[in-house]
Amino acid sequence: MSTSDQDLDPRTVRDHGGGLDRAIAQYGGQRTDWIDLSTGINPHTYPVSGLTAADWAELPDHGAFERLSGAARRFWDVPHRASILPAPGASAVIARLPALTAAGTVQITPPTYNEHAAAFSAQGWNVQTKGPGDARVIVHPNNPDGYIWQESDVSAPLTVIDESFGDVMPDKSLIHLADRPGVILLKSFGKFWGLAGMRLGFAIGRPDLINRLNDLTGPWSVSGPALRVGTQALEDTDWANATRKRLADEATRLDLLLTARGAKVAGGTSLFRLYKVDDASRWQEQLAQNHIWSRIFPYSETYLRLGLPPANGWDRLEVAL
Fold this sequence. Notes:
The protein is α/β, with parallel strands linked by helices. It has helices at residues 5-8, 10-13, 20-27, 53-57, 62-76, 90-96, 115-122, 189-192, 207-217, 224-235, 237-259, 280-289, 314-320; strands spanning 35-36, 83-87, 105-108, 126-128, 135-139, 158-162, 183-188, 201-205, 264-268, 272-276, 292-293, 295-297, 300-307. It has 13 helices and 13 strands.
């Protein structure tokens, strides 16, 4: 993974998947006409059920947070010395992490998820692409290329391990490092369970760090519906195991579809695939003309990233290609 310091500048690279409204404005149609493959969110969402009127009407109580944290501890096998902080999405934690210690130098190896650089930069940190620093961010597996980091990469006084896409490969998780001083591990509920709109994420680390993060997020940081659905989903290991197999099979299917048309696999996970093509903008244009939205990157003319289509989207994707 390599690019220039300028490429990492959050002012120029703070792009994201999604943005379907912009695609519609340019290429026409209604939202219901489009298939959005730009985000890497599981198209087979966890089935939400059992919500009550109280979940919507009442302030969440301490017991609901404890039940969610307990389910998270069991699902991810969190070390007993580590604490867990549920939050309104991993991005809410990312924005607050740089305030945990005095600003210094943070190493973030590109290309990767750009909100980390933006958050540290906003708090006065110097963002560098290589060399030791006072902090380090590793996205594991990395977005967009799926790079897998090792325990030896966790060496800075403050190390953020972002496992937002990690639930497709639990055997590669670095969760066992969550009780190490200076380590914060992030989990995102929206990706693997396909419920990004629910806004639920987790920060896991030593109690001193988690308590300071908790002070920054404030009370009732997670909604009642998110607490209930999150607990149900984290306890449903049968769904998780079946979903991992389904995603792996569909990622293989997507690779076969794209490589048959000249693309080369450049990495990714079973939630999103990264391809190297001759002209990424041209590929995106062709797909968009067929109301399929994809992801390209400002630092590469050849990278095209696609998430998995919904069950009724495969034929449309094949025709569009």
